[in-house]
Amino acid sequence: MNRRRSVTITVILALIAVGIGIWLSYEIRWFPVAASKQAVNSDRLYHVLVIASIPIFVLVVTAILFNVWNFRMRPGEELKDGAPIHGNTRLEVFWTAIPTVLLLSLVGYSFVVLHENEKKPAREIKIGVTGQQFVWTYQYPRALTGGAPLNSYELYIPRNESVQFQIHSRDVIHAFWVPAFRLQEDAVPGITTNWRVTATRLGTYPVICNLLCGAGHSLMRSAVHVVSQARFQEWLKSQASAAAGGSSGAAAAGGSAG
Amino acid sequence: MFLGGIVFAFFLTWVIRASTGHSTFHHYISGDAITTVALMAAPLGFLVGLGGFDYWFYWASGRKTRPEDHSGHGAYTWRDYFRINTDHKVIGIQYTVNSFIFLLIGGLLAMLMRAQLAQPGSHFVSANTFNGLFSVHASLLIFLFIIPVFAGLGNYVIPLMIGAPDMAFPRLNALSFWLLPVAGIMMLGSFFAPGGAFADGWTAYTPLSDTAPVGQVFFSVAVQFAGASSIMTALNFLVTIITMRAPGMSFFRLPLLVWANFATSLLVVIATPFIAASQFFILLDRGLGFNFFNAAKGGDVLMYQHVFWFYSHPAVYIMMLPGFGIISEVIAVKARKPIFGYRMMAFSLLAIVGLGFTVWAHHMFTSGMAAWIRIPMAITTAIIAVPTGIKIFSWLATLFRGVLRLDTPMLFALGFLATFTLGGISGVMLAMIPFDIHVSATYFIVAHIHYVLFGGSLMTIFAGVYYWFPKMTGRMYDERLGKWHFWLTFVFMNATFGPMHVIGLQGMPRRVATYASEFAGMNLFISIASFFLGASTLIFVYNMITSWRGGPRATGNPWRGMTLEWQVSSPPPVFNFDRVPTVVGGPYEYGIPGAVHGIFAPPPVPATVGAGSGAATPQGP
After folding, report:
1. Contacts of A114 in chain B (CB under 8 A)
2. For B196, left (φ over 0), alpha (ψ -120 to 50), or beta?
3. Which of A102, A150, A97 has the alpha carbon at shortest distance from A127?
4. A191 — contact with chain B (CB < 8 Å)?
5. Complex ipTM, two decimals?
6. CATH code (residue B232)
7. Is the CB of residue A102 less than 8 Å away from at least one CB of chain B?
8. Mean pLDDT of chain B
9. Would the pLDDT of B89 be above 70?
10. Is residue A79 in some structural domain?
11. Are residues B14 and B140 in the same domain?
């Protein structure tokens, strides 16, 4: 009867809404450009999450609108009550079990991505990152420079190579965040934290302090330059010679105490 | 005159507070310690002056103590709301009004923030002031609005709902209220401290808060007062609900609002001491050099975050569960149907209480804690969405085949279902560690928390205030203004917080006074929407004030509700029930011909009425 027709129409409208939602989720530019292997993985995770979320949100909103449309009080019904339905065990088991399975599979998938993003590669280089109010400095160890360790205000990393950042803080907590890599971790006084990234795209990307560290927090910015392997070696060499000449600001950056 | 004495004490303690709390440390600039002591001592002086500890003093000095005879119950003029009163209905209104004042102040601080953020690089306020603005905004709205306003509504309604004449500990109840203005004024007062207000967020992460200017102490001490208030009220709720239910009111006949506050109170008494501890660590570090968080001396910086979030994650549920209760009441009555799956609704509250203590470190996925902790925390965080989902689906099923009255409380309840679902979905997304690593501490988090606390808690609070307004004031509110208020709030709430998801994903950090120019357009849009959102609240304030003063008289049961608070007059008699009710059925038996929740026993021997000795003793139905 009438009820069945309105259910059919509602289901069709809901499916259309889900379709539009999923289409939009592909059209919207959610993220800054993905410049690392990890970014590609976590963007895919995000898309899966959005696509899983849209039907649930549409279901809730549709159910509200369906009920409002069909069961709103009409004039003359001021004293009327609804149907005395106390529950339905099968339905309740259903909407406990299905979300549990869905949530566990999503969180399982997220662990796969996490493992993929964080697993230790056969070869990687290590670069130190130090936060202090309100600047970032970067430490290149002997293993990279071939000579004296280098302390720099600038961050250059080679493309297609796994880099592990070892993050320290000199004063309060900061967070070392590169949105283009989708990675961050706090710089915590007293301990060393880290994350590893394989940059895949040449370019310069913002480095942002993402944990409130005082009055200058908003301006605690830096940049990461992703360059080719050859250009990276060249840059290291130029920094080393500048440091040797003693004229560059790079060597003085943040002191050498580490 | 007694009233004069109260007013005198009120002013005297204010003078003392002003001289010790403010002038003194201008003279002794060294004085973090002086400030700390003054901030603790002056409010206690205020409470003593107000009469909050009279009984103890009488007892200690050997004078004759006055047993609580409830002679001070009821408020007869507006002045009665400004002194110690042990009537749960007076306290409920004190709580609620006080909370809404802080909502307006906290909202105003948000407007100032949005004015600064309307354009990148603007200098509307300094960076330090800006940090103070969002810190005080969050602290006020969490500790002085959402938590206490639920306690206020609960205070008013719970004894009525369970058929009790008052709360179990009326004097404690009065004291717990008066701690709140103290905490609120202290937080606001920090703006006048040298170095400005506390400016490291409501999270007060160390070591920044260890070394921040003295404004930080105002936060750390104020939280003790607000927290003590929370704990007292929660204990009071627990004892009241356990021991003072009317005859026949078994746990599974309790209205879900009572269940929700029972669950919340469990959370409060277990969790709140942890935030008190976290702030004592900071006070000890600052005042006495304990080096809890000084890494150079072997302190452990991450420990603060664990202790802090061990409270502050359950606090999210403290700020949400009472709202769930309100929604259950509103939806059952306005849809004219029994709540779908009542027992599952109650059990899912308890499930949230249990699981709520197992998820705290999901706030710390990027904090540098041991990596493995993230795995169990992510699983529990995903799973805690299941009981919440059960509640959402049950409310939706309750609507099915009802007769929906789409008035203001119901609109807020339905709006809540939509916006809170969105907040819940973004919450589940944040459980996914690789995604969380990117958006942690960005505007995505700001969007998420505001969908949960504004789209969730505040919507339920508005629903509850409109719903019980006739009961609390004896007047009806203006329905047309109420609907305007809902639609403006709903539209501009989404316009304000929706776009924040996107700028967060795109890389805008939170807690910044300026930002990259690529976010300028979105931020301007958000700022404008937020000003309209703020303005929509004025409609609510106008409606409440004018309706309270001159609205049409409300009948005892304007919504034809079954729960006990609707079976008495509006406002209720001073001792709630002239005759002790006996509960004979469930609270939501709508649609069943002849079903009743409670009946009023024939009057007992008149002498027992009014002693307020507790309705739990069956008085012969």
Report:
1. 374, 433-434
2. left
3. A150
4. yes
5. 0.93
6. 1.20.210.10
7. no
8. 89
9. yes
10. no
11. no
Mean pLDDT, rounded, for B334-345: 95
Residue in chain A lying closest to B379 (CA): A107
Provide, as residue numbers in chain B, all residues whose Cβ is less than 8 Å from the Cβ of A211.
205, 441
Domain count, chain A: 2
Measured from the Cβ of residue B223, the count of other Cβ atoms closer than 10 Å reads: 26
Q: Does A95 touch chain B (CB under 8 A)?
A: yes
User: Residues A210, A152: one domain?
Assistant: yes
Tell me phi and psi for residue A98, to 5 degrees: -60, -50
**What is the nearest CA distance from B327 to chain A, expressed in angstroms?**
14
Question: Of B395, B396, B414, B416, which is closest to residue B405 (Cα–Cα)?
Answer: B414
Can you give the three-state secondary structure of A191-207, one letter per residue?
A: CCEEEEEEECCCEEEEE
Q: Taking a C-beta distance cutoff of 8 angstroms, is the pair B21, B39 a contact? A: yes
In a domain, A258, yes or no: no
In a domain, residue B568? The reply is no
Rg (CA), chain A: 27
Nearest to B207 among A63, A81, A172 (CB): A172
With CB atoms and an 8 Å threshold, state whether B433 touches A114.
Answer: yes
**Residue B70 — φ and ψ, nearest 5°?**
60, 20
Place of tokens 């100032």: B112
Residue B48, pLDDT above cutoff 80: yes
> Searching chain A, which residue's CA lies closest to the CA of residue B302?
A188
Mind listing the pLDDT tens digit for each residue in B374-410?
Answer: 999 999 999 999 999 999 999 999 999 999 999 999 9
Mutate to test the interface with B, among A33, A69, A73, A130 (most CBs of B within 10 A): A73
From chain A residues 20-79, the ones with a CB under 8 A of any chain B CB are 28-32, 38, 41-42, 45-46, 49, 53, 56-57, 60-61, 63-64, 67-68, 71-73, 77, 79
pLDDT at B245 over 90: yes
- State which of B45, B60, B75 marks the end of a domain: B60
Tell me, yes or no, if A3 comes closer than 8 A to chain B by beta carbon: no
Q: B283 and B199, same structural domain? A: yes
Query: Has residue B556 been placed in a domain?
Result: no
In-domain check, residue A81: no
pLDDT of residue B618 exceeding 60: no
Statement to judge: residues A9 and A96 lie in one domain: yes
Domain interval for residue A23: 2-70+89-118
Q: Are strands A135-140 and A125-132 parallel, antiparallel or unpaired?
A: antiparallel
**How far apart are the C-alpha atoms of B564 and B464, rounded to whole Å?**
16
pLDDT value at B340 more than 90: yes
Which residues constitute the domain of residue B25? 1-60
Residue B603: its pLDDT value, please?
54
The rounded distance, in Å, linking the Cα atoms of B388 and B320 is 10
Any CB–CB contact under 8 A between B535 and chain A? Answer: no
- Tell me the pLDDT tens digit for each residue of B561-607: 999 999 999 899 988 998 889 999 999 999 998 888 989 866 555 55
Q: What is the pLDDT of residue A6?
A: 87
The answer to whether B389 and A95 have CB atoms below 8 angstroms apart is: yes
Q: How many CB atoms lie within 10 A of CB B65?
A: 13
Q: How many domains does chain B have?
A: 2
